[in-house]
């Protein structure tokens, strides 16, 4: 579904991603871990099409298409979903209005007819249950004044509404208490199928107790320096990143 | 410019004005002022960003008052917005059009200025305050005078609609005087419509007196043709416990200068000024507002917002004057701008002069671009870039319309702005 080959990207001339290779197949869950500043969010942003990042080398194909050629909105319409590490507050744009616009533009692209207000609301209600999000929250401006946890929940709620094939969750678990974590993970798990795939970026093994990964990758200094199964996450939890950094630094000398 | 005024104004305005002898004192006073100072020149501080005299000199060839143009009920019909019900006062090149107007005069009286010749005329918008007011005093033929009756509410808004189109003369002089008696209430809507794409210069003066405990609402739209030049002087005297709210929207023109003055003359009164300028092409809009707190316990609130695309230009100058007597004043001012292109310019300047010590005043201005982060967030959810921009801009601009209490007009403004944001930005 997603193939990343030798991906290099920089921001304002500074290289951040330095040759990423990754293959994600339908039905899989990949976890990406790594120390702060290693490039995890950068990778997520590049995949979602953030223009500030310049891809200097490499290829990304998604469902057979060259992802890098598509605009951010077309990537979303093709089925890429990024749950932001820091969801943006947008005063004056109502959550409901925004979501209806998004859903209908995605549907239009996929050749489906637009949802009318009634249908939209009933789908919305159903998906709201999934992440136990309060109706009141959605009657406000998008993310405005939401708590950290509410913002993260809203991300997963949007994901549920947009039905992506590839979801990239960038530290969706950070800052969540145990209950919220359980709710959010539950939501993600219910949306999982054999047709779609998930990439979870996280610092914490505890998320992976809920969303069990098929593969765990360690990103360090712009490269995936180690890949393994879920046991790797446990090892990282126990030993930290220093041994990996040492290994990687030694290899690159 | 001074030359134009000295030679042409006296010759053309005066000789072409059949009503010169009415309001003779007002006119002579205006003339004196103009002869002494002329129209604002290049170095005039108040007009330094808006070279309107030069604009007039370069674009107006016939310095005569425009006569009535052909105007039909069709013109009127196509400019009434959905849901509007109320009286309509039609101006044809600044001249009152009795035939197309529909005036029930319920709870208010309506007359031409020449009929009532009120002493109040020129007392609120004073000739010496602005040369264009003086010019208007000199040049207007006749105007209208509306007086809302004591203790009465004019239930439906009064729609003042101007149709402008140059003919042998290119100058349009309208003059409006409104009195709202004690405990009365009224809402006005004002719109200026260009009948073609040719240049004209509209020089309008509106004076409003809001008497004790009365309430006035004034919603104004300027969406003129791309060559329109306008100077608008709008002055309000607000008396004890009275309130007045102005919401002004500018969407198009060549160069528009608006002077809005609220005089808070006695305690307990409130003045509100809201504005949106949404500009593209080469449109230049200058809003100079001025609120004068003279007595204690008065509030003023001001919010002007601008969105500027292409090589448009916006000027905002907000004066707040708090006199020594005006203790316990609350005065708030905000001006926020979004620039959509590198060629767009905004000049914003708050001017606070505070002589009382127990006051709450705040002001702030910002000028920025559309936030990339927000735009990306919307796009990442599948919303097309242009549409996303429109959503964000509307989220920014729409706040101004919250202050329009007359729903059909609010809807109309929202619709105009959304159309604009959907297509032009
Ligand atoms: N806009 C920017 N300008 C300059 N440098 C940037 C910018 N954005 C990110 N970087 C740098 O790129 C590097 C990678 O950042 P990124 O956010 O991808 O890390 P991360 O792995 O997601 O970290 P964290 O775990 O803290 O979320 C960091 O060194 C960061 O400082
Ligand atoms: Mg990150």
Automatic annotation (TrEMBL), chain A:
PROSITE patterns: ABC_TRANSPORTER_2
Keywords (A to Z) from UniProt: ATP-binding, Nucleotide-binding
KW Metal-binding (keyword) present: no
Gene3D superfamilies cross-referenced by the UniProt entry: P-loop containing nucleotide triphosphate hydrolases
Domain ABC transporter: 2-246
InterPro entries for this protein: AAA+_ATPase (IPR003593), ABC_transporter-like_ATP-bd (IPR003439), FeS-cluster_ATPase_SufC (IPR010230), P-loop_NTPase (IPR027417)
Signal sequence coordinates: none
One family name in Pfam for this protein: ABC_tran
Family listed: Belongs to the ABC transporter superfamily. Ycf16 family.
The protein's name in its UniProt record: Fe-S cluster assembly ATPase SufC
Organism expressing this protein natively: Belliella calami
Phylogenetic lineage: Bacteria, Pseudomonadati, Bacteroidota, Cytophagia, Cytophagales
From TrEMBL, chain B:
Domain of life: Bacteria
Pfam families from the UniProt entry: SUFBD_core, SufBD_N
Location of the SUF system FeS cluster assembly SufBD N-terminal domain: 20-158
Annotated SUF system FeS cluster assembly SufBD core domain residues: 167-396
Native species: Belliella calami
Homology family: Belongs to the iron-sulfur cluster assembly SufBD family.
Protein name (Swiss-Prot/TrEMBL): Fe-S cluster assembly protein SufD
